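Bench notes, afternoon.
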Amino acid sequence: MRGRTLPGETAADFAQAIEGLRAARLRPEVRLTEVPAPQRIAPYAVALTGEVVGSIGDEELASGRFVLLHDPSCPEPWEGAWRAVTFARAELEPEVATDPSLGEVGWAWLMEAIDDRRLSYCAEAGTVTRVVSERFGGLADRVTTVEMEVRASWTPLDGRLGEHLLAWTDLLCTIAGLPPLPEGVVALPGVRR
């Protein structure tokens, strides 16, 4: 992961954060790739895309983006110097399209992922969107699809930035339909759901 050239102590803080992201131990189904970070939101940023793949033909089960921002001036809405900005999306079963609690469930999955890692955070905000695609005309023979999108941001307060990345990957795995793994357990290859 690359960062921008940084002066003094802030450079060390950001370099340490990047090392924390690199040291995160991912589930084997999760693949991360560094991508260009946004340039105008904060003085320092790193961005990763992620995908959860199945064991059969590397089928993509979920995908998203994790951006870590650092602004030593501590912008007021952030309530701190760091900000995690995330996006996660996955296709769900068509039956859930009409479930009125789908948004609440998606948000609960994120909060549980963060809380299960015993992370300190504040100023959490976000949206959960369901996208129902019905096809007509020449596409009428294709099934209706439902996607869930969770867009969220929060301010990490504990310096455990790699763990915040892992909480986001836990969310990706949850919306992909993968069961949670207890500490120290390795996933065996298998079929989705």
